[in-house]
Known about the structure:
This protein is mainly α. The protein has one domain (21-163). The chain is 73% helix and 4% strand. The chain has 7 helices and 2 strands. It has a two-stranded antiparallel ribbon with strand order 1-2. Helix 2 runs antiparallel to helix 5, helix 2 packs parallel to helix 7 and helix 5 (86-106) runs antiparallel to helix 7.
Amino acid sequence: xxxxxFTIVDKVTIPSSAYLPAVGYLLxxxxxxxxxxxxxxxxxxxxxxxxxxxxxxxxxxxxxxxxYMPLGALSSHIQALVKIFPSSYExxxxxxxxxxxxxxxxxxxxxxxxxxxxxGVHFATHGYDLSGIxxxxxxxxxIGVAVILVVVSSYIIxxxxxxx
Length: 164
């Protein structure tokens, strides 16, 4: 739907070759977000506390994926914080897929590189450029770590609850 919107309103066409990889990134992002939410929700036992935390997370999510502010506008410390969350990698991958054709067709390489860094299309971590398949591999690794954390947290919380 958004692809049609961009084509009609902004006269920007998303290449059809971007849709299948986008679905892959969306699936990885959904799994990662579910696991992160599970980590946050596991220790909570009150509906009131849960709803309050939900409001905080909802407001913070836009900053975490650099939706409200471009990644390049954030300080280096906040950029490092953003890179802890798998959703930011999903957002970067989708930006890369959807903007690449526009960047290649209309911008010089210097301007394109600056915009990709500023908008958070490409992440650079410890000198490595994370784009394309590297973003997917990073997300899979983060999902693996999150699965381990959820399992360990569930075990610890389950043992604690049994003692009560």
